[in-house]
Amino acid sequence: MSENKLVGIVLVSHSAQVAASVAELAKGLAGGATTVPVAPAGGTEGGGLGTSAELIAAAAASVDRGAGVAVLADLGSAVLTVKALLAEGDELPDGTRLVDAPFVEGAVAAVVTASTGADLDAVAAAAAEAYTYRKV
Q1: pLDDT at res. 23
Q2: Distance, C-alpha 12 to centroid of its chain
Q3: For residue 54, which of 38, 87, 97, 112 sits 20 to 30 Å off, Cα-Cα?
């Protein structure tokens, strides 16, 4: 699959630093995965804690390559903000999907899977499967 047809990934957190760090971690653990378009959307426009519909929409537009956009969110209002944007119907690129997945593990799985050229269904499934990862 050509690089311009990779699934894009948006990481929505209440914290700009958390979103950026998880994006960096996911790309690093995916062998750099520099070709996978990943964008953090954390915090508010003013740099505070919270979520911003504008930052999320801009991040989704920046990673859209025509193969869909997987959005992973950390907590509460981040999820609600993404759901509201999806319900509006014209704020996010066509093929944008909120993925029910753990934020860190799901982000890594999504980026690794997207780097193989997998479609949005496969990327979403890999991220969601991260719920089954056992630590003990």
Answers
A1: 96
A2: 7
A3: 112
Q: Which helix (H) or strand (E) holds 10?
A: strand 8-13
Tell me the H-state helices in the chain.
16-29, 53-63, 76-88, 103-114, 120-129
The three-point CA angle 69-64-70 to 5° equals 10
Active-site positions read: 14
What does the alpha-carbon distance between residue 13 and residue 74 come to, in Å, rounded to a whole number? 5
For the whole model, what pTM was predicted? Answer: 0.94
Which phi and psi angles does 8 have, rounded to 5°? -90, 155
Compute the distance between CA of residue 112 and CA of residue 124 in angstroms, rounded to an integer.
11
Distance CA 76, CA 51 (A): 10
